[in-house]
């Protein structure tokens, strides 16, 4: 996140002036904020709203921490016994999911935490089969947006992988969309 302006004190008039200035595009930086996901305009990284302590991942190699793939970097997560992985995520507030970067084979919305038997027998809210070309083009899967509104929990089931190998490896999962309860006022920072 980029800091665009700040002021000191509890001056309501100055606060209103700052908000008007920022909303009219007269921010101290003449460079506009760039979108994090150009193919998903108006949407943000929702990983900031995940409750990381409630993340559950089944069948992952103990050598890896499932939380690492929520951040971009060199870390990765691998499956353990076979190619299947099952992720259960919980958001701190309802969100609208527009897309998922790292693409699952199946995704379930509004579900409580799933187990493999549940994921294999249920009809997914959305699913896709991905190819190497898809990953090379950025790896953003746009979900059926109307089905992923007001989401508190989401489960992602990876049934198999490219090449039908015994191990599935993932470097990053990013949920893209909007929060339904906007309470982030970090655009204006006040110092006492």
From TrEMBL:
- What's the name of the protein? Thioredoxin-like protein 1
| A GO CC annotation given for this chain | cytoplasm
In terms of superkingdom, the source organism counts as Eukaryota
Tell me which PANTHER family the record gives.
Answer: THIOREDOXIN-LIKE PROTEIN 1
List, alphabetically, the PROSITE patterns matched. PITH
Q: InterPro entries from the entry?
A: Galactose-bd-like_sf, PITH_dom, PITH_dom_sf
Tell me the lineage of the source organism: Eukaryota, Fungi, Fungi incertae sedis, Zoopagomycota, Kickxellomycotina
Task: Please state every residue range assigned to the domain named PITH.
Answer: 35-192
Keywords carried by this UniProt record: Disulfide bond
The record's Gene3D superfamilies line, in alphabetical order, gives: PITH domain
């Amino acid at each position: 996140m980029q800091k665009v302006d700040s002021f000191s004190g509890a001056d309501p008039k100055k606060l209103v002036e700052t908000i008007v200035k920022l909303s009219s595009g007269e921010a101290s930086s003449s460079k506009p904020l760039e979108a994090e996901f150009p193919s998903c305009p108006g949407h943000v990284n929702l990983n900031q709203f995940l409750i990381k302590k409630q993340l559950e991942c089944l069948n992952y190699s103990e050598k890896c921490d499932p939380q690492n793939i929520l951040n971009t970097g060199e870390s990765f997560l691998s499956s353990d016994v076979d190619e299947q992985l099952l992720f259960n995520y919980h958001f701190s507030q309802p969100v609208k999911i527009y897309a998922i970067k790292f693409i699952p084979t199946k995704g379930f919305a509004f579900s409580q935490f799933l187990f493999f038997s549940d994921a294999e027998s249920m009809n997914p809210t959305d699913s896709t089969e991905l190819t190497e070309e898809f990953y090379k083009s950025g790896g953003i899967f746009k979900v059926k947006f109307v089905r992923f509104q007001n989401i508190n929990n989401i489960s992602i089931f990876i049934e198999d992988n490219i090449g039908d190998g015994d191990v599935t490896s993932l470097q990053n999962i990013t949920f893209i969309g909007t929060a339904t309860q906007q309470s982030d006022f970090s655009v204006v920072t006040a110092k006492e």
